[in-house]
Amino acid sequence: MRIDDALVWAEYTLVNSDSARLDAQVLLAFVLGKETIYLMTWPERDLSEQQKAQFEALIEKRVNGHPVAHLTGEREFWSLPLKVNNSTLIPRPDTEVLVEQALSEIQSHFTGQTSILDLGTGTGAVILALATELPMAKCVGVDYSHDAVQLATENRDSLGVNNVSILQSNWFEGVTGKFDVIVSNPPYIDPTDKHLKQGDVRFEPLSALVANEHGLADIRHISEQAKQYLVEGGCLLFEHGSDQGLAVREILQDNAFVDIRTIKDYSQNDRVTLGYFK
What we know:
alpha/beta, Helicase, Ruva Protein, domain 3, Rossmann fold, 9 strands, seven-stranded mixed beta sheet, 278 residues
């Protein structure tokens, strides 16, 4: 089977996927150990029998709904290649808005060595992105899941990021000290949301996805506790659901945060809400 024939077959097989062409390209490049541009440059190259069998097996898994990132074991976030597995959420492009906004707030409001805490770090995507942009910052990522802590630690070490500590903690329980900035992409999906039975989230841990109180319980808990861990003038930023902007602003207001505002994602949906402790 030639490369171009393999891609045509895979795209036809993945006809029910919204990203069939991209899925096929990423998976075939993974099998070949090449960049996707290689597929366009050498379409006439033949696959070995082993490569053909491996590619067909991956496409079959993708047809059954397995996320591409789980099949390849990697997802790029903020131009960082991150290892992923089914113990954490797969980093999403919209989460880069959280990184962008945190960087903007830090550049506008803080001087000197900034201290940053990431609650529910998962793969480490957010804190590693911030740490690479701010190499002088003191960064800490925490997660309740031992497997997530191990994965984030592996990502930190493989990227050679030396200004990040990764800790196991149930939110603030194992955290000491105060921080200039606290960021979090906590569970924020209502347990009854129909989307939990669709797409990639079927293969991700529910504990990283759902929260009580219509998805707001963890956001509320973090907001109530965060002031004990923020310096005066510190900033708290959340990623949240597209329909939760107003509710998160009200939670921050109820907890005496000021300068509260919501930032939209690349699709112009409410995605990140922040406030300051003063």
